[in-house]
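Dear U.,

For the methods section draft, I wanted the exact inputs and outputs in one place so we can describe them consistently. I've listed the two proteins in the order they'll appear in the manuscript figures. Please don't edit the token lines directly; just add comments below if something needs changing.

First protein:
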Amino acid sequence: MSRAPFTFYEFFAGGGMARLGLGERWKCLFANDFDAMKAAAYRANFGDDHLHAGDVWRLAAEDVPGRADLAWASSPCQDLSLAGARAGLAGGRSSAFFGFWRLMEGLAAEGRAPRAIVIENVSGLFTSHGGRDFAAVCAALAGAGYRFGALELDAAAWTPQSRARCVIIATRGDLPAALTGSPDNATRIVAEARDRLPGRLRGRWIDWRLPAPPHRNQDLAALLEPDAAVRWRTPAQTQALVDQMDGAHLLRLDAALASGERRVGAAFRRMRSGRQRTEARFDGLAGCLRTPGGGSSRQFLLVAEKGEVRSRLISPREAARLMGLPDSYRLPPRTTAALHLAGDGVVVPMVRHLAAELLEPLLSPQRARAAA
């Protein structure tokens, strides 16, 4: 197996979480993000050698150097998220995908198409517009000569955060038999998305085989800052959160208080039937991190202990840990910016697992044949 570094492009790079996840065996040739705050965080952690800050639609193929083994694209998800307006790929943010795809077509025309492409987005991509958005992505890949398949991966397998994602992996090369077949983490939403595709696209489909990761050994409580190092909400503010609970959510809090142990939970405020409700969980997981756009996007932590409950907002460093970022990672100094960076990112250990178990075994023989 070749030990030369695998090469990659990182589009919609954010703070470089895909780069961190790919790891030391990978070399970045080019990175791009439109957001100035995210670009600043990328530079603070990785330098400025490969980053091009600006609109992906303003890039041309000649701006992108060399031929990479992999193009990674975590395109904006706001128009596809279940928490958003579901405008789909026609939405103002998520349509940036086609700016990325225009570059892939330009590289292919020059004989520089990446050997593999990963497209990561929210799980809403599987069902957006009745599956038509997912089919549009698959059609683009097929039209460029790629075969493809998709996985639904939840961050909860790696970090204590519930965060399901659609991950499409496409390749132009031969497929090692060990990488295909029934995945250990197959989900119904993937099978239904595949079966909705027209026959010409189903013929390009790959059932990727990805082993399940080792069992996660940390829960939400293990990632939190010491109680004395954070700012707690007042008892009145906490009671206001509790007063907005009902049904199963109030029962969960009551059970945590009755346990006699310190129990840590997570909560969001959401609008339900025109009323604001607090929805809580005490299963050892945080809810899906989101950008701090107000309302339900602000995640609370609840601590039930000695018959009392306290509450506070999740901190930027805790959010970073839930994304798998090391404490050495330099976050933006402003809280809102740091939470935005985390909420828009990709989970680092999920990328590492995908790289080690699928991408590297896929690309190693392809590169060996190209070098022969």
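Second protein (the one for the lower panel):
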Amino acid sequence: MSLLVVGSMAFDSIRSPFGEVEQIVGGSATYFSIAASCFTPVRLVSVVGRDFPKDVMEKLSARGIDTRGLAVADGETFRWKGYYENDLNVAHTVRTNLNVFEGFDPVLPPEWKDTPYVFLGNINPRLQMNVMDQISKPRIVALDTMNFYIENSLESLREAISKIDVLIINEAEVRQITGELNLVRAARMLMDTGPRRVVIKRGEYGVLNISGGDIFAVPAYPLDKVFDPTGAGDSFAGGFMGYLASLDRKEISNKDYRMATVYGSAVASFTVEAFGTQRLESLSREDIAERVSMIRALIEIP
């Protein structure tokens, strides 16, 4: 079943304790799309500049990612430069150049307005609501955000959150929105405003999936090599939503959401093994299934 993603595509320059790269393809919608395409067809809505490589668009299309919603505007593609120190959970931004993304105004192709599964990447909440206004009767709408919009567009963000089914967000942002340090209480505060489920990304500490009285925790898969955590959260969301869309069920159970959390964690664990989308691009369903089995073995008591 088709899955719609609206978000950023970018060039990233990244330094970590394990190396440095310049101007590799990144962005929330890029990571999400590639991850989700391992499970289901993806419809991509974003904007890039004239400098964006055509061969990258061709690679996306070859993965079953429909790029008819990808606008090519005059100007340069969004650019981000940052670095990580020993704590790989914290990204330090050196420079952000929005470029053509500053004028991004997502418009869905008419035939996409009935897409059943929707993910709104960390874009302006006003634009997230604009996309929701264009969609008719989706089964699941999930949303991510970032500290910039929490600091500068909090009321609009609260309104957007009130209209969705699943909030996928990192732990610092949950605390920032609610002012509550305890993650379980913070999640329940957010659920009181609209979403049925809050999924909290905790980096190397795993993921919390909370809905009502149901709390499910998945550890991050322990790796012996980690190069770059950039895009891991977006890859998690792609695996999570991609798995749910692949089920094509009218009713998604708690068990389905729990398995989606494990699949999302498995996909994210591959992302950090290389810079950029390199590892995601070579990922197979067999790789994911094997990693899912390994994660399940971590939390199983024989």
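Candidate sentences for the figure legend, describing the second protein: The chain has eleven helices and 13 strands. The chain has one domain: 3-299.

Thanks,
Y.
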